[in-house]
Write a structure and sequence with these properties.
Layout lengths: L3 E3 L5 E2 L2 H6 L5 E2 L6 E3 L28 H10 L14 E2 L11 H8 L9 H13 L4 E5 L2 H12 L5 E4 L4 H9 L3 E4 L20 H11 L7 E4 L12 H13 L4 E4 L3 H11 L8 H10 L3 E5 L10 E5 L2 H14 L10 H13 L3 H19 L13 E5 H4 L9 H13 L1 E2 L1 E3 L1 H4 L7 E5 L7 H18 L4 H14 L5
Helix pairs in contact: 2-15, 3-12, 4-12, 5-6, 9-10, 13-17, 15-17
């Protein structure tokens, strides 16, 4: 197995629909100025990246009419979180807890030890995390935000400052609930959603140094780096950036933490884009990431394929004792942390499966396939395509809708009204005054949807734009944008 980084060489993926009509057509997937090429060489002459699994159990999808969807929207007050899931065709609201578990995970569920204390399920999870993450203390919680609440309750006090490359909404909320201030320090290049550079999720290290000098290390109980940078358009973070942050925090004796929800996807980007790591396995890269920090929060609902669960990890014995005491008050005994034993076992298996190169290659390629197909037809996305989601720059696409009128939410409503697809606004609705952009996120659940679902999604997005906004100024601007920047727009 080999991972190469080249410019101007694109991995290939074939669309079944296009092959049927145009047998010679090959779909190309450029990923910014960097391309993932020659990653896994299973077949000498077949380059199509396929789903590395087969389907054993299926769940039916319900088709609805446009009239029905209009009524559902009215009943929900145009809040897509209030829609009933049965009335959604493709649910891209989140990738959290929505994965399809594997046969090995379901087998592990049957092995779950539901003992209140000393569960073997916990010790199996502890063994996996010790090998992968290397922390002395691994504290389970019912999900990632519960781990955040415990961490910030113990570490933060009013007036404190917590820097991050970009805080997600629950992270920011848990910090601010303690009276502390959450500060985003993305690199300047992240401000341009259209720039195609690797590792746009990096933290601005110079800005971090200036913040520490201006405010003093005593006011900063920890520094966090989110991998991948979800609110920053799901952009990856380089190992060099984490190492640089480690050097800065070490000088100030400030703990450095990862929000490690999508650590495996981030590791794959490092393997394929950061010089020096092409021959490393995703697990080795992940181990190095964790070795550079003092602790982490982790939602097992993302890069562990689990439907519930989270972890709070640290190397600090005193801190772990305080966190465990708080855990008992609200989550449960330290060997189950609010989870069933079967959930702990499912997480343990998922942490192993998520680092399989075959899975990660497919995961990143399938997301890039969606991103390139809509971007090359004029839909502005956060470039380059990231890991678990594609972000549409709704503010750029719909300039006639002001930030106060929520362009991302308007686009989300139209996409459901037109095609039955649920997405989520990442902008002023979610972050208020802290929003950097007005985005629409299309989060792809892991191992759930197939190639034809993604092809439907591409068509749904393009036709939604064409039909819903044909008469608006945004449509004329988008058509011009597509013609000048991406080639001919389809409308």
């Amino acid at each position: 197995m080999e991972c190469c980084v080249r410019q101007g060489h694109w991995p290939q993926r074939i669309s079944a629909n296009r092959v049927r009509h145009r047998p010679q057509t090959i779909i190309r997937l450029p990923i910014g100025r960097w391309a993932l090429t020659g990653v896994l060489d299973y077949h000498e002459f077949v380059r199509t990246i396929i789903e590395p699994f087969r389907i054993k159990s299926v769940e039916p999808l319900r088709h609805t009419t446009s009239e029905q969807r209009e009524q559902y929207l009215k009943d929900a007050g145009y809040n897509l979180f209030q829609l009933r899931a049965v009335n959604i065709l493709l649910d891209l609201l989140t990738d959290s807890g929505t994965s399809a578990m594997s046969t090995e995970q379901w087998a592990a569920v049957m092995r779950g030890d539901e003992s209140y204390a000393g569960s073997e399920s916990y010790y199996r999870l502890e063994a996996v995390t010790a090998d992968l993450m290397g922390f002395r203390h691994v504290i389970p919680a019912h999900q990632g935000r519960a781990a955040e609440r415990i961490l910030f309750t113990v570490l933060c006090k009013p007036g404190d400052i917590v820097p991050n490359n970009t805080h997600f909404d629950t992270t920011r909320a848990n910090i601010e609930f303690r009276g502390a201030q959450a500060i985003d320090l993305p690199i300047p290049e992240a401000a341009d959603t259209q720039s195609r550079i690797p590792f746009k999720g990096n933290m601005d290290i110079a800005a971090l140094e200036r913040l520490i000098e201006a405010e003093g290390a005593a006011r900063i109980p920890l520094v966090m780096i989110t991998v991948t940078n979800n609110s920053g358009g799901v952009q990856p973070v380089s190992l060099a950036n984490i190492e640089a942050a480690r050097a800065v925090t070490a000088r100030g004796k400030i703990p450095l933490y990862l929000d490690a929800c999508r650590f495996a996807e981030n590791a794959w980007f490092i393997k394929c884009q950061e010089p020096g790591y092409a021959d490393w396995s995703p697990k080795q890269i992940a181990q190095k990431m964790f070795s550079l920090v003092d602790g982490c929060t982790f939602s097992a609902k993302k890069d562990a394929f689990a439907n519930i669960g989270g972890l709070l990890c640290t190397n600090d014995d005193r801190l772990a004792e305080q966190e465990t005491h708080l855990l008992i008050l609200t989550e449960g005994f330290p060997t189950y942390g609010g989870l069933a034993g079967r959930d702990l076992d499912a997480i343990a298996v998922g942490l192993t499966e998520v680092l399989q190169p075959e899975y990660l290659e497919y995961r990143i390629a399938s997301t890039a396939y969606l991103g390139r197909h809509i971007a090359d037809h004029g839909v502005p996305i956060v470039e380059p395509p990231g890991g678990h989601a594609i972000y549409i720059d709704a503010g750029r696409m719909l300039p006639h809708i002001s930030r106060g009128q929520f362009p991302g939410q308007a686009l989300a409503v139209e996409l459901y009204r037109h095609a039955g697809v649920r997405s989520v606004e990442i902008g002023s609705v979610m972050f208020g005054e802290h929003a950097h952009h007005e985005l629409l996120r299309l989060a792809i659940p892991r191992r759930v949807y197939t190639q034809s679902h993604i092809d439907y999604l591409v068509e749904a997005i393009l036709t939604t734009v064409r039909t819903a906004f044909a008469a608006s100024r945004s449509s004329r601007r988008l058509s011009s944008y597509g013609t000048s920047a991406r080639g001919s727009a389809p409308w």
